[in-house]
Records
---
Amino acid sequence: MLRGEVVPGDGRGRVLGFPTANLRCHDGVLPDDGIYAVWVRIDDDPTPRAGTVSVGTNPTFAGERERRVEVHLHAVDVDLYGRTLAVELVAYLRPTLCFADADALIAQSVIDIADSDAALAR
């Protein structure tokens, strides 16, 4: 389980069609880099929402950067800045990869979301 406040990121996810909430984790302990299927709770709302999380440095986009937790909520469009997310990791989907370009990343993201939905349905 990860818990943290949503903070501004690069804004790249929204441009690519997969907006993400960058999470500043309170406990500082992160899972291994990779893509995960997750259930997400916003603030004190007990309703879990389906999501996909990326943990890592986003190697497709060059530059030195710290490891990040980026949460993509499926079929949810809500302003999350400053809100607290509780993220329950359900399944590890794949390792973090460096893609040749943004189009390859977008194509894989579509697959990741479908794989995440399938894992959450079990």
Note: The chain has a mean pLDDT of 91.
---
Amino acid sequence: MGGFSMSIDPRCRHDRSVRELAAGMFDEGRGCESVAKSLGIPAKAVRKWQLTYRAVGRDGLLKMGKKHARYDFETKVAAARAVVEGGMSKPGAMERFGIASSSPLDQWCRPYRGGGAEALRPRPRGRPRGSGSKAAPMTREQEPGREAGRPGAQVAYPRKSIAPEAEPRSRTGRRP
């Protein structure tokens, strides 16, 4: 068979039909090197497919690229703990906890090593409420109308401003 690499989704370089062929070969018991050679696809991609196939089955492999899976806090902590503290392999943790890709598992292990389970707790997204810039209280000089409201106060703008080159025009009422 030749190379089946039709691009549909930029995040998922090989379309569903190619992954379906790979899943059929995995069903037969073929390894990733053999499948990669048959389909003309890099072995690295097929190895990731095989991990996904083992973790979530044929359906999970065929749904790749459609929607990102969401995992709850308990699953994240259990999987990260099993890998970091329990010494479980990442493919083993993917199978046991039903994680479709190694990427999220990598993203959970890193903060877990540094801060434990609390580092994986979901944080609120977006700007916190009330974080808009609050205007500082105005000084007496800045308050509008305060200066102008005082008797005898003059406005800081000049009353009449005539540019020197505009004088002939203003006297005669027309251009020179």
Note: The radius of gyration is 34 Å.
---
Amino acid sequence: MELFYHPLSRYSQKVLLALYEKQANFFPRVIELSDPLSRQDFSLFYPPGKVPLLKSKQEILIPESSIIIEYVDNEFPQKGTRLIPLDTSISLDTRLQDRLIDLELSNTLFEFEQQQLNPETSNQIKLKQLEKHINRFLQYLDDILEKNHWLCGDSLTLADCALIPCLPYARTHFQLFKYDNLSRYWAQAQLRGAYLQVKEEIELAQTEVLVGRRPIP
């Protein structure tokens, strides 16, 4: 398998977490979407030009982080962590929380970041609305974690792969310490071997951005 991704992309981090949890072998292909030549080459290969993208052993192109993870979980059912639980009710909840996190948290965080990048042109009313929305969703997650070890029960799932990449930014910009259960969850997530592998890639990519060797995606 080949994974086309960028380490600083949260959706790429989501897939990386899943692949490392599954202990799946893959060939990494980092795509610099902010570099015109890299973007052009990737768009010729995959016209939508979005990462992450998985190329299967059968050379099938599989886009979208949640679909990639479900494919990998089915491809390696006996290997590593089961990311889509076999129990029907838990699997439905896992897919629900995954979609909510992508739509209500990850995408909203991206919009909030974009507003903050250009303070001269940012809409302060919009910023406040986004901030309120994010804090409300963080409280929703904190309430769920009152009774669950991981987001959908005792085991890490697809939903956790979606949530964990959002928490470093939430920790520094939304006072994650105010949420006791989320703080506990973040502490345990940082001990996972899969997260440590992803963190190493993130830190390397951030260093390369700082020294000018790699543009920001």
Note: The domain at 2-82+195-210 is CATH 3.40.30.10 (Glutaredoxin).
